[in-house]
Amino acid sequence: MARYYFGESNPLGRRIRDTFGPAHGADFIVVGVAADAKYHNVMEKNVRRFYVPFNNPIYEAKSAVFEVRTIGDPAVVSKTVGAAIKRIAPNLKTWGPNTLNDVMESSRRVDRLLIELASSFGTVAALLASIGIYGVMSYAVGRRTREVGIRMALGARRSDVVWLILGESLVLATVGVAIGALAAVGAGRLISSMLFGLMLVDLPVLLLVAILMFAVALLASYLPARRAARVDPLLALRAE
Predict the structure, then answer these.
(1) Do 203 and 118 contact (CB within 8 A), yes or no?
(2) CA-wise closest residue to 152 among 144, 135, 64, 166
(3) pLDDT-derived band of residue 236, with 50, 70 and 90 as boundaries?
(4) What is the spatial distance between Cα 160 and Cα 137, in angstroms, rounded to a whole number?
(5) pTM of this prediction exceeds 0.90
(6) What is the CA radius of gyration of the chain?
């Protein structure tokens, strides 16, 4: 709020007028500047706010939150503070004390649930992708049995045929992983703006998934290629 209305100039001693709230045009003198704060959840954007004294007659406070900083056990301190409040105002209705960690965890409960669901769906998606890659690559290599027979009939060695198929499969896997990584980064940028604490790119997970996809693609190519290379060239030439 200070930056919005006063820019880089010193706001101390300046006057502001509340024309929208219950003050009905009352003037206030700025006596200090507080840091931006979040009130409802950790994902909310910073809004322009100003503070008035608690006992200000214009703004009737219906509740209050007291914050206590301690280096000891929060449970012990909260009991001490609660006992002091009861001693001073025994009829005052109070709500149980919470630590800042409890408040943060409560505000992040929905986000944490969404992250866990996304992780579960991601694991299932990776499994389905592995099954799909294995099936497609294995089928594609298996249909090259006739080609393998022709190459071996013309003098190609089994190892050369296997490495040829693996090299082509590696190119396809590299292109697929590259496209998938770009899509993952774009999706991570979108989702991280919606969920607090979610990294834009989780590099270890991204590398693990990429290695998994490479391994599945190579395995799906190697097994049928080696099987086709062991077939007699005459039988391979007759294969449909």
Answers:
(1) no
(2) 144
(3) low
(4) 19
(5) no
(6) 33
Quick: pLDDT tens for 95-132: 777 787 777 777 777 777 877 887 788 788 888 888 88
| Of 102, 101, 104, nearest in space to 40 by CA | 104
Amino acid symbol at 166: L
Beta carbons within 10 angstroms of residue 145's beta carbon: 21
Q: Tell me if 141 sits within 8 A of 229, measured CB to CB.
A: no
User: DSSP of the chain, one letter per residue?
Assistant: -HHHHHTTS--TT-EEEESSSTTSSEEEE----PPP--SS-TTSPP-------TT-SSS--S--------SS-HHHHHHHHHHHHHHH-TT--------HHHHHHHHTHHHHHHHHHHHHHHHHHHHHHHHHHHHHHHHHHHTTHHHHHHHHHTT--HHHHHHHHHHHHHHHHHHHHHHHHHHHHHHHHHHHTTSTT--S--HHHHHHHHHHHHHHHHHHHHHHHHHHHTS-HHHHHH--
Residues 6+ apart with CB under 8 A from 155: none
Give the Cα separation of 80 and 94 in Å (integer).
Answer: 14
In angstroms, the CA 125 to CA 225 distance is 27
Q: Which residue has the higher pLDDT, 123 or 227?
A: 123
Residue 146 Cα distances to 37, 150, 172, 204, 231, angstroms? 70, 6, 21, 41, 10
Structure tokens belonging to residue 181? 């990584």
Contact 195, 111 (CB under 8 A): yes
Contact 235, 153 (CB under 8 A): no
